[in-house]
Amino acid sequence: MNPRKNMTALVTGASRGIGAAAAVLLAEQGMNIVVHYHAARDQAEATARECERRGANVMVAAADLRNFAELERFKAKLDAAGLSPDILVNNAGVSHYGLFTDVTEQDWENVVGVNLKGMFRLTQLLAPAMVRRRYGRIINVSSVWGIAGASCEVLYSLTKGGVNAFTKALAKELAPSGVTVNAVAPGAVETDMMRDFSEAELAALRAEIPAGRLARPEEIASLIRFLASPESGYITGQVISPNGGWLT
């Protein structure tokens, strides 16, 4: 008997990259999948089709994570569909590259809104049901820069450091209720977040990484899949960084 068969996994930002890869790998486990997106509907539906090919029941739903009212409507849609996620993958995120002194209020509102505010509120909406069931898995996608910090990515690093602190604190609060909270903090990954880097910059980046390459989204998703499993129940409050030996 597959203990995952009746579980529901919600993956935010599942239209592409790590989120799409995570949704597909979780679908292979026999779970119901909620594919969240903000604006990339066509790509989200493509992710959903990949999940359905693996036998999953799939719901596709949009929400602006920066907006509490939209998140509450999103939760209402889940309730109406009879879906109460056992697994929450807070993957959605936006990057910001530029000098610290050039960060605007709009930059702040956008990056903090998606990377921190949305993660906080969505988890707040979904965690009570996990606590009542005395079972849940919350996996937050952070970044190596949330651990080490990066020049010209101060705003992004700040938010990912916040994700790590949120993970550690919430893990302690929810552990007695059987809910684990962990963060995955990848190094450089072949996703759209790297699109603003030139080929010369990417080559220099690869040269810094002992593994000699960027990660594939599926490699990060495989760690998310494990942390989402029943077998991972004694792992909580951890920030795990798959980074090819870049940061040790």
Molecular structure report:
With 248 residues, the protein is α/β, with parallel strands linked by helices. The protein has one domain: 3-Layer(aba) Sandwich (Rossmann fold), CATH 3.40.50.720. It contains eight helices and seven strands, in the order E-H-E-H-E-H-E-H-E-H-H-E-H-H-E. The chain has helices at residues 17-27, 41-53, 68-80, 105-133, 145-148, 154-174, 199-208, 217-227; strands at residues 8-11, 32-37, 58-62, 87-90, 136-141, 179-184, 239-240. Strands 3-2-1-4-5-6-7 form a seven-stranded parallel sheet, sandwiched between helices. Helix 2 (41-53) links the parallel strand 2 and strand 3 (58-62). Helix 1 (17-27) crosses helix 8 and helix 3 packs parallel to helix 4 (105-133). The radius of gyration is 17 Å and the shape is globular. The model has no long low-confidence stretch (mean pLDDT 95). It is an enzyme of class 1 (oxidoreductase). It comes from Thermobacillus xylanilyticus. This is [acyl-carrier-protein] reductase Oxidoreductase, short chain dehydrogenase/reductase family protein. Belongs to the short-chain dehydrogenases/reductases (SDR) family. GO terms for molecular function: 3-oxoacyl-[acyl-carrier-protein] reductase (NADPH) activity.
Specify the CATH homologous superfamily: NAD(P)-binding Rossmann-like Domain
Radius of gyration: 17 Å
Annotated CATH topology: Rossmann fold
Helix content: 40-55%
The order of strands across the largest sheet is 3-2-1-4-5-6-7
β-strand percent reads 5-15%
